[in-house]
Protein backbone atom coordinates (compact mmCIF):
# COMPACT_ATOMS: atom_id res chain seq x y z
CA UNK A 1 0.00 0.00 0.00
CA UNK A 2 2.76 2.40 0.97
CA UNK A 3 4.63 1.57 -2.26
CA UNK A 4 1.55 2.23 -4.39
CA UNK A 5 0.93 5.53 -2.57
CA UNK A 6 4.52 6.67 -3.21
CA UNK A 7 4.22 5.71 -6.88
CA UNK A 8 1.01 7.73 -7.24
CA UNK A 9 2.59 10.73 -5.56
CA UNK A 10 5.67 10.49 -7.75
CA UNK A 11 3.53 10.23 -10.88
CA UNK A 12 1.42 13.19 -9.70
CA UNK A 13 4.54 15.32 -9.15
CA UNK A 14 5.96 14.37 -12.55
CA UNK A 15 2.68 15.22 -14.23
CA UNK A 16 2.60 18.67 -12.61
CA UNK A 17 6.25 19.52 -13.35
CA UNK A 18 6.03 18.30 -16.96
CA UNK A 19 2.89 20.40 -17.47
CA UNK A 20 4.65 23.46 -16.08
CA UNK A 21 7.71 22.88 -18.23
CA UNK A 22 5.64 22.48 -21.41
CA UNK A 23 4.00 25.86 -20.75
CA UNK A 24 7.02 27.50 -19.21
CA UNK A 25 6.50 30.89 -20.86
CA UNK A 26 3.05 31.35 -19.30
CA UNK A 27 4.02 29.73 -16.03
CA UNK A 28 7.11 31.92 -15.81
CA UNK A 29 4.83 34.96 -15.82
CA UNK A 30 2.77 33.48 -13.00
CA UNK A 31 5.92 32.51 -11.08
CA UNK A 32 7.32 36.04 -11.43
CA UNK A 33 4.03 37.49 -10.22
CA UNK A 34 4.03 35.24 -7.16
CA UNK A 35 7.73 35.89 -6.50
CA UNK A 36 7.26 39.67 -6.75
CA UNK A 37 4.24 39.53 -4.45
CA UNK A 38 6.14 37.36 -1.96
CA UNK A 39 9.15 39.69 -2.18
CA UNK A 40 7.03 42.72 -1.35
CA UNK A 41 5.25 40.80 1.41
CA UNK A 42 8.45 39.48 2.98
CA UNK A 43 10.32 42.78 2.58
CA UNK A 44 7.54 45.01 3.88
CA UNK A 45 6.72 42.74 6.82
CA UNK A 46 10.42 42.74 7.75
CA UNK A 47 10.43 46.52 7.53
CA UNK A 48 7.10 46.67 9.40
CA UNK A 49 8.57 44.89 12.40
CA UNK A 50 11.96 46.59 12.24
CA UNK A 51 10.73 50.13 11.57
CA UNK A 52 9.91 50.84 15.26
CA UNK A 53 13.49 49.96 16.23
CA UNK A 54 15.01 51.92 13.36
CA UNK A 55 12.74 54.93 13.83
CA UNK A 56 13.27 54.82 17.58
CA UNK A 57 17.01 55.10 17.05
CA UNK A 58 16.48 57.96 14.61
CA UNK A 59 14.24 59.85 17.03
CA UNK A 60 16.82 59.49 19.78
CA UNK A 61 18.89 62.05 17.86
CA UNK A 62 16.20 64.63 18.72
CA UNK A 63 16.97 64.43 22.42
CA UNK A 64 15.53 62.93 25.60
CA UNK A 65 12.01 61.52 25.57
CA UNK A 66 11.64 61.06 29.33
CA UNK A 67 12.65 63.37 32.21
CA UNK A 68 12.53 63.09 35.99
CA UNK A 69 11.98 66.04 38.32
CA UNK A 70 11.67 66.18 42.12
CA UNK A 71 8.26 65.07 43.38
CA UNK A 72 6.02 67.13 45.64
CA UNK A 73 7.96 69.32 48.06
CA UNK A 74 11.29 67.71 47.29
CA UNK A 75 13.86 70.29 46.17
CA UNK A 76 16.31 67.87 44.58
CA UNK A 77 16.79 64.27 43.50
CA UNK A 78 19.45 62.18 45.19
CA UNK A 79 21.84 59.98 43.23
CA UNK A 80 20.47 56.95 45.10
CA UNK A 81 17.02 57.79 43.74
CA UNK A 82 18.46 58.12 40.23
CA UNK A 83 19.91 54.61 40.63
CA UNK A 84 16.54 53.26 41.83
CA UNK A 85 14.84 54.74 38.76
CA UNK A 86 17.53 53.44 36.41
CA UNK A 87 17.11 49.91 37.79
CA UNK A 88 13.44 49.95 36.71
CA UNK A 89 14.32 50.69 33.08
CA UNK A 90 15.35 47.68 30.93
CA UNK A 91 19.08 48.04 30.27
CA UNK A 92 18.68 47.21 26.57
CA UNK A 93 16.27 50.14 26.13
CA UNK A 94 18.55 52.77 27.68
CA UNK A 95 20.33 55.00 25.17
CA UNK A 96 21.57 57.48 27.74
CA UNK A 97 20.72 58.96 31.16
CA UNK A 98 22.10 62.42 31.96
CA UNK A 99 21.59 63.98 35.43
CA UNK A 100 21.72 67.79 35.63
CA UNK A 101 22.42 70.16 38.50
CA UNK A 102 22.14 73.92 38.02
CA UNK A 103 23.94 76.61 40.01
CA UNK A 104 24.50 80.34 39.51
CA UNK A 105 28.14 81.39 39.09
CA UNK A 106 29.89 84.52 37.92
CA UNK A 107 32.33 85.18 35.10
CA UNK A 108 33.87 88.69 35.12
CA UNK A 109 31.23 89.59 37.74
CA UNK A 110 28.43 88.66 35.34
CA UNK A 111 26.00 85.95 36.57
CA UNK A 112 25.58 82.82 34.45
CA UNK A 113 23.95 79.45 34.99
CA UNK A 114 26.37 76.52 35.30
CA UNK A 115 25.12 73.01 34.57
CA UNK A 116 26.90 70.07 36.13
CA UNK A 117 26.28 66.79 34.31
CA UNK A 118 27.75 63.56 32.99
CA UNK A 119 29.10 64.83 29.67
CA UNK A 120 29.60 61.31 28.30
CA UNK A 121 25.88 60.63 28.80
CA UNK A 122 24.94 64.02 27.31
CA UNK A 123 26.55 62.86 24.06
CA UNK A 124 24.03 60.00 24.03
CA UNK A 125 20.92 61.87 25.16
CA UNK A 126 21.57 65.01 23.08
CA UNK A 127 23.40 63.98 19.89
CA UNK A 128 21.93 67.03 18.14
CA UNK A 129 24.35 69.33 20.02
CA UNK A 130 26.91 70.85 17.69
CA UNK A 131 30.16 71.48 19.55
CA UNK A 132 32.65 73.82 17.92
CA UNK A 133 35.90 72.54 19.37
CA UNK A 134 36.24 69.44 21.54
CA UNK A 135 34.27 67.79 24.29
CA UNK A 136 36.01 68.24 27.71
CA UNK A 137 38.73 65.72 28.42
CA UNK A 138 39.42 66.74 32.05
CA UNK A 139 37.86 68.58 34.98
CA UNK A 140 39.49 71.90 34.07
CA UNK A 141 37.85 71.94 30.63
CA UNK A 142 34.22 73.02 30.10
CA UNK A 143 31.67 73.57 27.35
CA UNK A 144 30.29 77.07 26.91
CA UNK A 145 26.96 77.89 25.26
CA UNK A 146 27.13 80.14 22.19
CA UNK A 147 25.19 82.94 23.97
CA UNK A 148 27.59 82.90 26.92
CA UNK A 149 30.60 82.82 24.61
CA UNK A 150 29.32 85.84 22.68
CA UNK A 151 28.67 87.86 25.85
CA UNK A 152 32.13 87.43 27.31
CA UNK A 153 33.98 86.84 24.02
CA UNK A 154 35.24 83.31 24.62
CA UNK A 155 36.63 80.92 22.02
CA UNK A 156 37.85 77.31 22.24
CA UNK A 157 41.17 77.27 24.10
CA UNK A 158 40.53 80.47 26.08
CA UNK A 159 40.99 80.49 29.87
CA UNK A 160 38.60 82.21 32.27
CA UNK A 161 37.79 82.32 35.97
CA UNK A 162 34.54 81.24 37.63
CA UNK A 163 33.61 82.72 41.00
CA UNK A 164 30.65 82.23 43.31
CA UNK A 165 29.35 81.38 46.77
CA UNK A 166 29.40 77.77 47.95
CA UNK A 167 26.65 76.11 50.00
CA UNK A 168 28.52 76.82 53.26
CA UNK A 169 28.64 80.55 52.49
CA UNK A 170 32.28 80.66 51.51
CA UNK A 171 33.35 82.20 48.20
CA UNK A 172 35.28 80.22 45.60
CA UNK A 173 37.33 80.97 42.52
CA UNK A 174 38.27 78.37 39.91
CA UNK A 175 40.10 78.64 36.58
CA UNK A 176 38.73 76.79 33.55
CA UNK A 177 39.56 76.38 29.86
CA UNK A 178 36.97 76.51 27.07
CA UNK A 179 37.03 73.10 25.40
CA UNK A 180 34.18 73.79 22.97
CA UNK A 181 31.24 76.04 22.15
CA UNK A 182 27.73 74.49 22.25
CA UNK A 183 25.42 75.47 19.39
CA UNK A 184 21.84 74.17 19.31
CA UNK A 185 19.70 77.17 18.42
CA UNK A 186 17.86 76.67 21.74
CA UNK A 187 18.14 77.42 25.44
CA UNK A 188 21.14 75.09 25.75
CA UNK A 189 23.29 77.96 24.47
CA UNK A 190 22.63 79.93 27.70
CA UNK A 191 24.57 77.57 29.97
CA UNK A 192 28.09 76.72 31.05
CA UNK A 193 28.62 72.92 31.12
CA UNK A 194 31.06 71.09 33.37
CA UNK A 195 31.27 67.67 34.97
CA UNK A 196 28.88 67.03 37.85
CA UNK A 197 31.73 66.23 40.24
CA UNK A 198 33.45 69.53 39.40
CA UNK A 199 30.33 71.56 40.18
CA UNK A 200 29.79 69.59 43.39
CA UNK A 201 33.37 70.34 44.47
CA UNK A 202 32.75 74.04 43.89
CA UNK A 203 29.38 74.23 45.67
CA UNK A 204 30.17 71.80 48.49
CA UNK A 205 26.82 69.94 48.72
CA UNK A 206 27.03 66.64 46.85
CA UNK A 207 24.42 64.23 45.48
CA UNK A 208 21.73 66.79 44.61
CA UNK A 209 20.21 66.61 41.13
CA UNK A 210 17.65 69.06 39.70
CA UNK A 211 16.52 67.03 36.69
CA UNK A 212 17.39 63.79 34.91
CA UNK A 213 17.07 63.52 31.13
CA UNK A 214 16.62 60.02 29.71
CA UNK A 215 16.72 58.79 26.15
CA UNK A 216 14.84 55.48 26.01
CA UNK A 217 14.44 53.37 22.89
CA UNK A 218 10.88 52.12 23.39
CA UNK A 219 7.37 52.48 21.99
CA UNK A 220 4.79 54.96 23.27
CA UNK A 221 2.93 52.19 25.12
CA UNK A 222 6.14 50.93 26.77
CA UNK A 223 7.04 54.45 27.86
CA UNK A 224 3.57 54.99 29.32
CA UNK A 225 3.87 51.75 31.31
CA UNK A 226 7.36 52.75 32.44
CA UNK A 227 6.09 56.13 33.69
CA UNK A 228 3.34 54.40 35.69
CA UNK A 229 5.76 51.86 37.14
CA UNK A 230 8.21 54.56 38.26
CA UNK A 231 5.42 56.69 39.72
CA UNK A 232 4.18 53.70 41.74
CA UNK A 233 7.60 52.57 42.99
CA UNK A 234 9.73 55.71 43.38
CA UNK A 235 7.91 58.44 45.23
CA UNK A 236 10.80 60.92 45.24
CA UNK A 237 10.57 61.70 41.51
CA UNK A 238 7.90 62.67 39.01
CA UNK A 239 8.45 61.11 35.56
CA UNK A 240 7.32 63.15 32.55
CA UNK A 241 7.28 62.21 28.90
CA UNK A 242 8.59 64.77 26.44
CA UNK A 243 5.40 64.99 24.38
CA UNK A 244 6.89 66.72 21.35
CA UNK A 245 9.25 63.76 20.88
CA UNK A 246 7.12 60.79 21.94
CA UNK A 247 3.93 61.93 20.17
CA UNK A 248 5.78 62.72 16.95
CA UNK A 249 7.46 59.32 17.06
CA UNK A 250 4.17 57.53 17.66
CA UNK A 251 2.41 59.43 14.86
CA UNK A 252 5.14 58.72 12.31
CA UNK A 253 5.32 55.03 13.24
CA UNK A 254 1.56 54.61 13.02
CA UNK A 255 1.41 56.19 9.56
CA UNK A 256 4.38 54.21 8.26
CA UNK A 257 2.99 50.91 9.50
CA UNK A 258 -0.43 51.70 8.01
CA UNK A 259 1.24 52.48 4.68
CA UNK A 260 3.20 49.21 4.77
CA UNK A 261 -0.01 47.28 5.52
CA UNK A 262 -1.91 48.98 2.68
CA UNK A 263 0.84 48.42 0.11
CA UNK A 264 1.15 44.75 1.11
CA UNK A 265 -2.58 44.13 0.69
CA UNK A 266 -2.66 45.88 -2.70
CA UNK A 267 0.35 43.92 -3.97
CA UNK A 268 -1.17 40.59 -2.87
CA UNK A 269 -4.44 41.43 -4.64
CA UNK A 270 -2.55 42.30 -7.82
CA UNK A 271 -0.58 39.06 -7.52
CA UNK A 272 -3.83 37.11 -7.19
CA UNK A 273 -5.29 38.82 -10.28
CA UNK A 274 -2.15 38.11 -12.32
CA UNK A 275 -2.05 34.43 -11.33
CA UNK A 276 -5.78 34.02 -11.95
CA UNK A 277 -5.48 35.59 -15.41
CA UNK A 278 -2.55 33.36 -16.31
CA UNK A 279 -4.30 30.21 -15.12
CA UNK A 280 -7.47 31.14 -17.03
CA UNK A 281 -5.35 31.42 -20.19
CA UNK A 282 -3.82 28.01 -19.43
CA UNK A 283 -7.27 26.44 -18.96
CA UNK A 284 -8.48 27.94 -22.25
CA UNK A 285 -5.36 26.62 -24.00
CA UNK A 286 -5.86 23.12 -22.56
CA UNK A 287 -9.59 22.74 -23.18
CA UNK A 288 -9.08 19.90 -25.68
CA UNK A 289 -6.67 18.15 -23.33
CA UNK A 290 -9.17 18.45 -20.46
CA UNK A 291 -12.00 17.20 -22.70
CA UNK A 292 -9.93 14.21 -23.79
CA UNK A 293 -9.09 13.32 -20.18
CA UNK A 294 -12.75 13.48 -19.21
CA UNK A 295 -13.73 11.34 -22.21
CA UNK A 296 -11.21 8.74 -21.05
CA UNK A 297 -12.77 8.70 -17.58
CA UNK A 298 -10.92 11.37 -15.62
CA UNK A 299 -13.02 12.77 -12.78
CA UNK A 300 -13.54 16.42 -11.95
CA UNK A 301 -11.58 15.82 -8.75
CA UNK A 302 -8.48 14.70 -10.67
CA UNK A 303 -8.75 17.75 -12.95
CA UNK A 304 -9.03 20.03 -9.93
CA UNK A 305 -6.09 18.39 -8.17
CA UNK A 306 -3.93 18.75 -11.28
CA UNK A 307 -4.56 22.48 -11.72
CA UNK A 308 -4.41 23.20 -8.00
CA UNK A 309 -1.17 21.25 -7.77
CA UNK A 310 0.36 23.41 -10.50
CA UNK A 311 -0.82 26.59 -8.80
CA UNK A 312 0.33 25.56 -5.33
CA UNK A 313 3.70 24.45 -6.67
CA UNK A 314 4.15 27.89 -8.23
CA UNK A 315 3.06 29.48 -4.94
CA UNK A 316 5.58 27.53 -2.89
CA UNK A 317 8.45 28.17 -5.31
CA UNK A 318 7.53 31.85 -5.65
CA UNK A 319 7.27 32.19 -1.86
CA UNK A 320 10.72 30.68 -1.41
CA UNK A 321 12.19 33.11 -3.94
CA UNK A 322 10.29 35.94 -2.25
CA UNK A 323 11.86 35.23 1.14
CA UNK A 324 15.37 35.65 -0.28
CA UNK A 325 14.57 38.63 -2.49
CA UNK A 326 12.41 40.21 0.23
CA UNK A 327 15.27 40.28 2.71
CA UNK A 328 17.54 41.83 0.08
CA UNK A 329 14.82 44.41 -0.62
CA UNK A 330 14.35 45.19 3.10
CA UNK A 331 18.10 45.42 3.65
CA UNK A 332 18.47 47.83 0.73
CA UNK A 333 15.65 50.05 2.00
CA UNK A 334 17.01 50.06 5.55
CA UNK A 335 20.54 50.96 4.44
CA UNK A 336 19.24 53.69 2.10
CA UNK A 337 16.86 55.28 4.62
CA UNK A 338 18.42 54.57 8.02
CA UNK A 339 22.03 53.63 7.10
CA UNK A 340 21.65 50.58 9.37
CA UNK A 341 21.39 46.88 8.62
CA UNK A 342 18.11 45.10 9.26
CA UNK A 343 17.64 41.89 11.22
CA UNK A 344 16.35 38.76 9.49
CA UNK A 345 13.17 37.22 10.90
CA UNK A 346 13.30 33.37 10.49
CA UNK A 347 9.54 33.16 11.07
CA UNK A 348 9.05 34.96 7.74
CA UNK A 349 10.10 31.85 5.80
CA UNK A 350 7.03 29.72 6.66
CA UNK A 351 4.72 32.76 6.83
CA UNK A 352 5.70 34.01 3.36
CA UNK A 353 5.43 30.55 1.81
CA UNK A 354 2.03 29.86 3.42
CA UNK A 355 0.63 33.23 2.29
CA UNK A 356 2.02 32.74 -1.24
CA UNK A 357 0.49 29.28 -1.49
CA UNK A 358 -2.83 30.57 -0.10
CA UNK A 359 -2.89 33.47 -2.58
CA UNK A 360 -2.17 31.25 -5.58
CA UNK A 361 -4.69 28.69 -4.31
CA UNK A 362 -7.41 31.36 -4.15
CA UNK A 363 -6.36 32.69 -7.55
CA UNK A 364 -6.78 29.21 -9.06
CA UNK A 365 -10.32 28.66 -7.80
CA UNK A 366 -12.08 30.39 -10.71
CA UNK A 367 -9.86 28.86 -13.44
CA UNK A 368 -10.23 25.40 -11.86
CA UNK A 369 -14.00 25.77 -11.79
CA UNK A 370 -14.04 26.66 -15.47
CA UNK A 371 -11.88 23.58 -16.16
CA UNK A 372 -14.45 21.31 -14.53
CA UNK A 373 -17.21 22.86 -16.67
CA UNK A 374 -15.59 21.66 -19.90
CA UNK A 375 -17.97 19.37 -21.85
CA UNK A 376 -15.93 16.62 -23.60
CA UNK A 377 -18.48 16.13 -26.38
CA UNK A 378 -18.53 19.78 -27.36
CA UNK A 379 -14.76 20.28 -27.08
CA UNK A 380 -13.84 17.14 -29.04
CA UNK A 381 -16.20 18.17 -31.87
CA UNK A 382 -14.08 21.31 -32.15
CA UNK A 383 -16.79 23.70 -30.97
TrEMBL record:
Where does the MacB-like periplasmic core domain start and stop, copy by copy?
28-209
Localization of this protein:
Cell membrane
Per the record, the major location class is membrane
Entry keywords, A to Z: Cell membrane, Membrane, Transmembrane, Transmembrane helix
**Stretches that traverse the bilayer:** 258-283, 303-328, 348-368
Molecular functions (GO terms): transmembrane transporter activity
Q: Which residues form the ABC3 transporter permease C-terminal domain?
A: 262-372
Q: Name one GO cellular component term.
A: plasma membrane
Give the membrane topology: Multi-pass membrane protein
Q: Which family does it belong to?
A: Belongs to the ABC-4 integral membrane protein family.
Put simply, this protein is called ABC transporter permease
Q: Which organism is the protein's source?
A: Aminipila butyrica
Q: Which taxonomic lineage is given here?
A: Bacteria, Bacillati, Bacillota, Clostridia, Peptostreptococcales
